[in-house]
Amino acid sequence: MKRRSFLMGASALALGQLASGCGNRQSTALNVGLLQNSIPVQLLAEFRRTLESPVRLKFDPQAQLKDIYQNLRVWKRQSENPESSPGFSLPLISRKPPAIANLVTLGDYWLESAIGEQLIQPLELSTLPGWQQLPPRWQGIVRRNRQGQLDESGLIWGAPYRWGTVVIAYRRDKFEELGWTPTDWSDLWRPELRDRISLLDSPREVIGLTLKKLGFSYDTANLSQVPNLKTELLDLHKQVKLYSSDHYLEPLVLGDTWLAVGWSTDILSLRGRDRQIQAVIPRSGTSLWADVWVQPAVQKTAAESPEPETSQSLTQQWIDFCWRQQSAIDISLLSHAASPILVTMNPATLPDSLRQSEILLPEPSILEDSEFLYPLPQEAIEQYLELWQEIRTMQFV
Questions:
Q1: pTM: predicted TM-score of the whole model, two decimal places
Q2: Within a domain: residue 366?
Q3: What is one GO cellular-component annotation here (predicted)?
């Protein structure tokens, strides 16, 4: 599933400069592969000040989650066959995989496959102060069995450090002409939006929002038990000008579409640059996503990493540092996504810009009605894909 792509920019350069300026003499190191723009560069300098001894820190930003996932696969393949090459790219243009990281960013949606492919290993987090503060809902999405399925007594496979929603973005100028603004999923079916909507190219998201409109869960396993689902999806399909998980905002900016459904990080970033773009979280609830720290199953050998126990301690220190209240506030202020720790904090202690942002911190009732996309049984996945393909092939005059 394509998710939340980000352009490489100035912050990537800043991260590289910080890493290269940390000194290369220390044997102890923390190597983190993170999603571009998901951690403010200021936080890295603050983390260094909390360390009692000199440590070599390297934070390697990646443009997309799928790039990080591919790195996990390459590391696993190379560990199983050290003589294998990273790929079959042409000489001089092949991308050399980065050094094996102690931690990397992964989306919660990727956990099932990463665990199933044995690309990541469990984390020892239950004794950390930050884990104790983490809301149960966010603890629950990373407790899995060894097949990647949710398990309340399962091992901890990730550390959620920020989260967001799927929201409705719309052009203020166009809706001023219409005389109303969208507030819930049902508005996507209004006739004046025929051929004016951009949707994500994702069966779980599109079928999910339709299920939500009908009063069902995003994680409904048996679609055949949902009355009128196919009819509702066909009616929604008539409204759609574009399905895309990468370029759904460009038509909105150009005015070719008037409304788009997309990830809150993308839309908050765009809204800061284009005053015509407004956003709303549907009042009946939406889908949630989380970025989590995970530990690659393949770690450096003792010869490559002289102090593996110290490196393990550093990973825990970094994760727990991200869960400190001030770090949680900084992540939420500067990364267009909220830390889960904010959910447990007294709103009166938060900066006004966070407390007043209904996109970053939805109303409690809306958040309560929103859902993570949990793993589904294989037969349910096949139902979603079959229905999705049927709807997408329909043509209307």
A1: 0.89
A2: no
A3: periplasmic space
